[in-house]
Design goal:
Chain lengths: ~325, ~270
Amino acid sequence: MNIKTPFVLKRIAWVSSLFLLLLLMTIFIGISIGSTGNGVKAVLQSLFGEGGADSMLDTIIWQIRFPRVLLAALVGATLSLGGLVFQALLRNPLAEPYILGISGGSAIGAIIGILAGLSRFPGVSFTAFLGSIATLLLLLIMSSGQSILKKNTLLLSGVMVNAFCGAIIMFLVSMTQDSRLHNIIFWLMGDLSMSDIGQVGILAATLLPCFIILFRYSHSMNLLLMGNEMAQTMGVNIKRVTTILLVTTSFMVSSTVCHCGLIGFVGLVMPHLLRLILGPDHRVLVPACILGGGAYMVICDLLARTLPQQGEMPAGVITAMIGAPLFIYLLKRSKR
Amino acid sequence: MKKAVEIKKLSFSYSENEVLKNIAFSISEGEFFIIIGPNGSGKTTLMKIIAGLLKPKQGKLKIFDRPLKDYTRKDLAKTIALVPQMTLVDFPFTVTELVLMGRSPHLSTLGFEQEKDLEIAKNAMALTDIEHLAHRPLDRLSGGERQRVFIARAICQEPKIILLDEPTASLDLAHQVKVMDLMEKLKKEIGFTVIMVSHDVNLAAMYGDCLLLLKEGQIVSMGKPGAVLTYKTLEKAYDCMLLVDESPLGKFPQVTLVPQKLKTPRK
């Protein structure tokens, strides 16, 4: 029997290998560079098992930088993919978990979880998930009754949900004298510094099934872009697909948010950039967003770690400085 | 002749507003069937019910002698394709990518198209005369081109029935004729059953094998254009003065609007 590999599959394989290479390269750079000196040689030495490397530098590389870089990659992957899915679901290229307030909602959930004294996993992850689902419902109710969620109504609703979430977060922070919240402000701007390899492992194990589920429905996302009715007449079970996509994405984003705080605009920048290069086919974009988004976040985190003369800045500062101007540009272009 | 669509005692309402009232008719296989009627007469609702997008409150609906509710979404997609009213797609798919989407009911969830599917898409693009646009992104097409792309997508789906919702509504004259000619060609050459909602009674008169005239959710008249498009039925349906005579092009009626300033009191 002569079965030819489908041409889309070939393209996915090509793009994925290319972006995987890119991700590995950025991870290598990420663990090599840091405040205690450059460790390209040390990384290479410990990778290829040649002993005699500076054991202090070795520890820093594998116990501190490596988990952090992995966390950055996971966060970038999740947020980019989250943006991609929301853009398809709402048929709005400007949708993004942070802009829509979904991240804010899960942050409220996470803070309540922390205040209630729950463990980070699964306790806080679960309250964060509830928070994201609640904001999502709020958002859908606010913009329902409009024909297929009109663009501006949705964005405006998102901005308001976001402002509301911000107020609640500040309220909670101000009302507690709790030491657990001492670095909450930092966390609100996106913080990747609290990572150990065990937590990163758990997060990776949670996210992987989500990635697989979302890839499985990537062609349905293509069809969804044609509008609900068209998608249905092409054989898509709208209710099922929409529910699966919404729940999976909210779960994925909220698990990430409770580890890294609020990092904005990643879900806007990466899908747009990749769509520009690769076209709008989600079967290609889903793996590209996972790998490319990871690489992007690793670089942003590297900048956040190395730009300040002393200490570091929250990674969310870098992503917002890149993302917010792009958002304004895209909004202006879509008005035309 | 086989019945493509059979509707009995069909009613539909949005909350309290009854849009279709006790409708019954059938459409033969291979027919060019055009649904006409004033705004709010329930044309589009009727079409969405046939497409399986709305569930009727009452009544029976069979597609090729099989109740609609027995079809799965995929089965239905292999039987009926829809060409919607102007759809704006914000995402820059190319024409080929869009036409290929029509293959999805025949493929797995991930929709990995084979060479064979690409072949079918190319044929569909040849039929609709859009081969030269194959690599153009959707947002860089004119209205008429875009409409033909969506028709090609419907052909690519290899259905038995194609539904079109006012396909000529925002097109210039040349493109109107081109779209209608295309649908007639598809009917004759491939044997599609074509069901169209239209506002243009004159196009309906020239192309329709059978017309259905709706008003306020009820059938005013149904049959050949000559029988439906008479002065009496049209005036009853549209509540305005019209002139109906025979078209200089052949044996079908031609409807002319009568402006206020030219109205003379009837004797």
